[in-house]
Specification:
Radius of gyration: 29 Å
Helix content: 55-70%
Distance between the termini: 64 Å
Number of helices: 26
Structural class: alpha/beta
Largest sheet: 8 strands, mixed
Shape: flat
Strand order of the largest sheet: 7-6-5-8-9-11-10-12
Number of strands: 12
Length: 734
Amino acid sequence: MSDGEGEGRGGGLPIRLTYVAAILTGSFLLFLVQPMVARMALPQLGGAPAVWNSAMLVYQALLLGGYAYAHLLGKLVPKAQATVHLLLLLLAAAWLPIGVLAGQVPAGAEPVLWTPWLLAASIGPLFFAVSAQAPLLQRWFAFACPGRDPYALYAASNVGSFAGLIAYPLLVEPLLSLKGQSWGWSIGYGVLLLLVVACGWLLPLRRDAVVVGDPGPAPGVRRVAHWIVLALVPSGLMLATTTFLTTDIVAVPLLWVLPLGLYLLSFTVAFADRRGMAEAITRYAPITILVFGGMMIAGHHDFPLLNALAALLLLFAVSVSLHTRMHALRPAPARLTGFYLAMSVGGALGGVFAGLVAPVVFDWTYEYPLLILSAGLLAPLPFLLPITERLWRARATVLSVVAIGGVFVLVVLGLTNPAGMLGAKADAVAFFGIVAIGLFAIGARLPYVVALAGALYLFGGYRAIELSLEPGARTRSYFGVYTVAHGNGVRELQHGTTLHGIQLTGSPARERTPTTYYVPQSGVGEALRAAPMIYGPKARIGVVGLGTGTLSCYARPGQQWRFYEIDPTVVRIARDSGAFTFLRNCLPDARIVMGDARLSLTDQPANSLDLLVLDAFSSDAVPMHLMTREAFATYRRVLGPKGLLLVHISNRYLDLGPVVAATAGGWMAAGLSYQPASEANGETGSEWIALTPDPEVLAELLASGGDWVPLPPSDASPWTDDYASILPVLRALQ
């Protein structure tokens, strides 16, 4: 018996607890890094998609590198592995306290190249070293406790990841400044280093401990590919679910936490020692995929929170089912690190597909139904009842033909409803018929997948395809899906679930009429109409956020206007597509500055604008770096001592008024909340805050008209680049 065997049998529980603590700590720290570094880097790098797509690739590359390093390190004897890894952790500690290197992006630098360099130089060694923890320590545990299943520790790893994910928005960000977060993370790194020392101390010395039991045959290419695909689909579906929910269902702040959290918890269930929950969820996952998949693609908005719950349950069922299948196909502990490397490759490919490829290739969230269909192809399909199993085994060919034919017939009837034979709700009746066929077919792969495809197509897929085939009706960028709808006397631009603009049609005068949040009685409408009185006929006006270009119809001869827009797709819709004609009719030579507005304004000369409109909020998301005290200092410098800043704070889920007033300390403030008597002419309610350092300017604005109300000083915590949290300003969900 080796030394490791004696330790594993004599002190198994202390050893296990030591390894669990080390793995939990490493995973917790790893999932704190990404949101923390994003907050640190946002003021410096801005919010352009090229920046954060590059950041995502850096994280994926470092994670893959960490798993590959853990796999290669397995060729050494256990104590040598511990020595090398401890040296790596000590070397990486030279980058503490964790943070982003200071300095602005050099003029003319390409963000796609600058961002990876900056992040790799700032956190690369730390992220690389910590990312190797989970697979490496599981392998060490197999040395220290022979005969114990090291894969169960992967459940602990994902508990740590989940804890880090939840802790950041709910505890770390609200309670600590970025400096405090940096030092807290660095202390945690020191704790991790001590735990790894303890784990390394428990490793056996003898060289024959390198082989832990029978490694079995090396996995073939097909088996490795199967691991990769089983990891790819849940990873991609997690991102696709987040995109689909915020695009087609409800854009609630912090919603992204729930899909990622459930994805992580699925590993905890799938790799747990006790198999009851994993097996139960896996058994009934085909039902969830079939029923909820079709329901979600329908995209109904009547019960958004109920739909969100259904989407999250679908994601969890798919993730547990496919990860449980991975657990069943896991190799012997001696080949553990290769297994996790393949899993990491699959997870990275899923992220690249859903996060980088899909927004470029598709004009809608087509990746969502495609990944649901892929889940149906991969999920275990045990027969639901013994009688259906006997029927399918006895008459598989005949039943397959009947089932597939029935699905096609129901799809056609649901779409055409000849002579009204299926009633007023033909698609719903046909959908339930397809679901019935699919439930009967569970256990038979091809008929089940055909039924799933039929449900996805009938209950929403065909409508998405029709809209995609309509020229100019819909387009997509990394910021979301934009849909142009033509109604009775109006054209509308929808950004996900949020109305982004309306233009009245029918006459030149109607086409020049400002609508939605920008009507003449709104805060911005009153301020722009008062601009000639306050600043004269040559007022210099800037607008952050182009939208459909509605505000351009307040422009007057002699004024200088400048728009700041981060999304080229919005510019194409507003200026080039012909779908909206505000710019063409009212300000055809409008100057549009592309890029992150805060970075662009930083490069502007002092006192170069008289009035600045801040209207950059897409859907109900808030670009926090545009709302900090440092950002307001930039606006004040560009506006000068008599400048006027208009901030749009209309939001379904956040009460931004107090935090804006607190953040703009030293400015005079007034608010205007407008609610139209009717929305018949494209009018919508809006809330605006006007800010100026000059009391005379504010007095002139109040005297010009409108229902402005002076705002008292706010006792809310101001947002800064070092501290900001949306939790204190969250409204109760309606």
